[in-house]
Design goal:
This protein is of the alpha+beta class and 437 residues long. The protein contains 19 helices and 10 strands.
Length: 437
């Protein structure tokens, strides 16, 4: 009898261990974009299939998310088992050993179905380090009724001059209709995503081939002056505080004649349950300036497993569910094919049901294919990335420059001063980091 407490203790420990195994909890850090909010609502489908795995979501605004996950992974904090990261972070973090290669997504995942442009940005040395839940470029979304009223026809491939002229023509500030809405909120992935892609089409570069900053060159002056003048004439008030979500809300409530932003927004602006102008939206490629480059970017919001997680197997189970073909069918069954996360799989764009339901499908795919991260600019550069520069320093640099350009938009500093400040702070950081002397 004296051995009984020990046996009971052993059994209890085994039972507790079994319960712990049965209650694996995944903590997922994610962005507060529509597709991820939708995914959270559908998570019951995953937990029903995997009763041993619980999911906890930590949802943040874009700039906050980037700061939190970067700090956590760099310090090996271990707060998250799955992180929502983008095309910028994946190759840098994978090379630093911060991410787990996704090699357990299951036999039916079909990696080869991922769009080559999207998959390529998430692959390092032939290993996939993040799985895309949606991919995007950027394009023009515009109000067909306002264009018709103004006697304007939007070309499939407009120029910046046409866009600027049209924006000013359809602006009616007395009735809170603004010709164009563009990102103004400071952040490397907010206003600088838009402005860097736009600058490419104006012939500007972040750096020349010797890593010398280029904000003191006329192409950047032309880009920023064009943007500030256009937003002053035809943009909404308070534009320096507007990012993706703020401009989405403005467009959906009928206050924007045009919006140049992520192709993923197309399903939201054409959804009659969310958009007051759903039946009055047309699409066009991002504008160009006649120099051979359009102002469109390439991005994928993706799910990755930090190397510090102790739940890599369960995390890959979730990622396989969230980014696989069956998830698209789940969204289609619940909310219609038009609301399936776009831009990741070839099979989606070959699906006649999606083609019929999504009038923006062809333009989205064309925009994604048109982006060229390896040759993003008119003149040669030493970096890859369309709306970002794929170096670790860019996250801080992009946000610092974005703050200068947001201040110029708000009228707090002149365009010339903003560019001068951008040049100075970028030179300082590039010297400190050893790129230039």
């Amino acid at each position: 009898m004296r051995f009984m407490p020990i046996l009971l203790g052993t059994c209890a420990a085994a039972l507790l261990a079994g319960q712990a195994l049965a209650e694996t909890t995944l903590t997922i850090a994610t962005v507060n974009n529509g597709d991820m909010i939708r995914m959270q609502k559908l998570t019951d489908d995953f937990t029903a299939k995997h009763p041993d795995i619980k999911v906890e979501w930590v949802t943040m605004e874009e700039n906050v998310l980037r700061q939190k996950v970067t700090t956590d992974i760099a310090t090996k904090g271990g707060q998250y088992d799955i992180m929502t990261i983008g095309t910028y972070e994946v190759p840098i973090w994978a090379k630093q050993g911060w991410l787990v290669p996704l090699e357990s997504l299951g036999a039916d995942y079909d990696v080869d179905d991922l769009l080559p442009a999207i998959r390529g940005g998430l692959t390092v040395e032939d290993k996939l380090y993040a799985a895309p839940f949606y991919g995007e470029s950027s394009m023009v979304m515009y109000r067909t009724d306002l264009f018709e009223k103004a006697g304007l026809d939007m070309p499939d491939a407009p120029s910046w001059d046409f866009v600027a002229e049209a924006a000013r023509k359809i602006t009616d500030k007395d009735n809170e209709v603004y010709g164009i809405c563009l990102r103004g909120k400071a952040g490397w992935g907010e206003n600088m995503a838009f402005l860097t892609a736009t600058a490419n089409s104006f012939g500007a570069r972040w750096f020349d081939e010797n890593w010398q900053p280029q904000f003191d060159q006329p192409e950047w002056k032309q880009t920023l002056q064009f943007y500030v003048d256009l937003m002053e004439d035809a943009g909404p008030p308070g534009a320096s505080s507007n990012g993706f979500n703020e401009n989405l809300a403005l467009f959906q409530t009928g206050k924007c004649g045009m919006w140049i932003d992520a192709t993923v927004a197309a399903s939201f602006v054409t959804n009659p349950d969310e958009s007051q102008v759903a039946d009055k939206v047309g699409f066009a490629l991002a504008p160009d300036n006649g120099l051979g480059k359009r102002g469109n970017w390439l991005w994928a919001w993706s799910l990755a497993v930090p190397a510090g997680s102790e739940k890599t197997e369960a995390a890959q189970e979730f990622i396989s569910w969230a980014t696989g073909k069956d998830y698209a069918k789940l969204v289609a069954a619940k909310e219609g094919w038009a609301n399936v996360p776009p831009g990741t799989r070839t099979s989606l764009y070959e699906n006649p049901m999606y083609q019929e339901a999504a009038p923006f499908a062809e333009m989205t795919l064309e925009s994604i294919k048109a982006a060229d991260p390896k040759h993003p600019t008119v003149d040669p550069v030493p970096y890859v990335g369309v709306q970002f520069v794929a170096i670790p320093e860019f996250q801080g640099l992009g946000t610092a420059v974005g703050q200068q350009f947001s201040a110029a938009l708000a009228g707090q500093v002149s365009v010339d001063q903003a560019l001068k400040n951008a040049q100075t702070l970028t030179e300082r950081e590039m010297k400190r980091s050893g790129y230039i002397k």
